[in-house]
Amino acid sequence: MTGALFEISFFLAAPFWLLMILAPNWRPTARIAASPLTVLPVLVLYLVMAVPVFPELWDAVRSPDIDTFRDLTALANGAGAIWAQVIAWDLLLGQWIFLEGRRLGISPLVMGPLLVLTIVLSPFGLLVFLALRPKARPGNGIPARAGHASLR
């Protein structure tokens, strides 16, 4: 069962990623991306997997060291819970990057690949976005979206 939950965790987040990447200018996309509630289904899976290994999870966060963390990830529910947590945080990070990119007027043609990078390797996606962000002013070489409007 843990293996199935592991697989499902990404599929619960995928529709939100698809909206931000494939329908960035659709008005409901910005409203949906602005909600932290998008991660709730993934967090439910996290709880389902974390509760059975809570003592090991608590040990790993109470006094973090590599061996305790390794012991946690050796358990199927431990690895699954950590994966669900990563999926949830990556989605929240992706939503922030998406919304900040819209606020700055960065073209969806730039943001789409950046969001894909964030899905796959979120630290790299965040670093690229943070490097891009100071330059993200219309007219500074980053194509702004035509007719950029506020998120209202």
Description:
The protein has 152 residues and is mainly α. It has eight helices and no strands. Helix 3 runs antiparallel to helix 6 (76-104). The termini are far apart. Mean pLDDT is 90; it is low at 144-152.
- Mean model confidence by pLDDT: 90
Give me the secondary-structure category: mainly alpha
| Distinct helical segment count | 8
Distance between the termini: 42 Å
The fraction of residues in strands falls at under 5%
Order of helices and strands: HHHHHHHH
Helical content stands at over 70%
Number of strands: 0
What's the short story on this structure?
The chain is an all-alpha fold. It is 72% helix and 0% strand.
Task: Please write out the topology.
Elements: H1 2-22, H2 27-33, H3 40-50, H4 54-62, H5 66-74, H6 76-104, H7 108-120, H8 122-132
Helix pairs in contact: 1-3, 1-6, 1-7, 3-6, 4-5, 6-7, 7-8
Protein traits:
single chain, 152 residues, mainly alpha, disordered C terminus
